[in-house]
Write a structure and sequence with these properties.
It contains twelve helices and twelve strands. The protein is of the alpha/beta class and about 325 residues long. An eight-stranded mixed beta sheet has the order 6-7-8-3-9-10-12-11. It has a four-stranded antiparallel beta sheet with strand order 2-1-4-5. Helix 5 crosses helix 7.
């Protein structure tokens, strides 16, 4: 597979009242054309910051970005605002976590589509209206002709998410980031949205990154999964291998928190004790050591490197589950 998107040693630091806060620490990741990757981790793991910074959405005096991010060989971190905006929608796009806040609440759905299509693709308003209907039909929106005349608040959560997906793919991007695409949706609608994203990826030959806190969400819809913790990738493997041969105790803890049908009614889901590491402090140990039942003095005094298990399965642990 040919490389589409390359992140190398990416570090994102914010200037805060508490001092420098490093949200992403030396992340490297390659995404191939047409591939689907899941970025998984709890709140504060750095997954959303990493994806938004990669797209060039985090810019300004209070944000320091080092490392490299390349799309089809083009370095993105050195582009100015106008240059990076030129890639949004046409080369890469994002479905944001909350469609209600991402959509303009005082403009009708059709009007929001028209603005993007006319500006990005140079369509006439008439052609843009036709294309909007086609896009909404593509994402399986019921009665798209009626939807374009409605305001976002008049749509259900699942319908708003479909509108966001349709807007994201309107200009046929090569890479789509989906940031918590199923948040606040009921289980049935979650499955419909994930199935839709999978179908669109194959139909449009589009690479996709699904950012989520739930391993269960990405289990059946990704080729590979990267698990993030404390701003770092702590495990990276093909989806089947990650579930069958988990190496990182943190990944195992995430798996145990997935709701299961065989649990007894009333049983509490296992929780990970403790809190994530302070992102304002330098990392001189394993970030998960204080919460890990397998941690030793070595874990508390040395920072584990990302290690290859021999088959491309990467993990950041001195004492991996199942041995090295």
């Amino acid at each position: 597979m040919s490389r589409l998107f390359e992140i190398e040693n990416l570090e994102i630091t914010f200037d805060t009242a508490r001092g420098p806060l490093t949200a992403v620490r030396g992340v490297s990741l390659v995404i191939n054309k047409g591939e689907s990757i899941g970025i998984v981790g709890e709140s504060g793991s750095g997954k959303t910051v990493m994806s938004r910074a990669s797209m060039g959405l985090l810019r300004g005096r209070r944000v320091k970005r080092t490392g490299s991010v390349k799309l089809e060989g083009q370095e993105l971190l050195t582009l100015n605002n106008d240059e990076i905006r030129g890639l949004w929608g046409t080369k890469m796009a994002m479905i944001f976590q909350d469609p209600m806040t991402a959509l303009n609440p005082v403009r009708r759905v059709g009007s929001q589509f028209n603005e993007s299509l006319v500006k990005r693709l140079g369509m006439s308003k008439e052609d843009a209206s036709k294309r909007t209907i086609e896009l909404l039909t593509l994402v399986r929106m019921p009665e798209p002709e009626k939807v374009i005349a409605k305001f976002p608040h008049q749509l259900s959560g699942g319908m708003r998410q479909r509108v966001m997906i349709a807007m994201a793919i309107a200009c046929n991007p090569s890479l789509l980031f989906a940031d918590e695409p199923t948040t606040a949706l009921d289980v049935t609608v979650q499955a419909q949205v994930l199935e839709l994203l999978g179908d669109l990826r194959e139909k449009l030959n589009m690479a996709m990154v699904i950012v989520t806190h739930d391993l269960g969400v990405v289990a059946g819809y990704t080729d590979r999964i990267a698990v993030m913790y404390g701003g770092e990738i702590v495990e990276l493997a093909t989806t089947p291998d990650l579930f069958a041969n988990t190496k990182m105790p943190y990944t195992q803890a995430l798996m145990e928190s997935i709701p299961r049908l065989d649990r007894k009614i009333g049983d509490r889901l296992p929780a990970i004790g403790g809190t994530p590491p302070d992102p304002t402090l330098a990392r001189t140990s394993c970030g998960f050591a204080d919460r890990c039942t397998f941690a030793t003095d070595k874990c508390r005094t040395e920072h584990p490197p990302l290690t290859d298990a021999g088959n491309g399965h990467m993990y950041r642990c001195f004492f991996p589950l199942g041995g090295k």
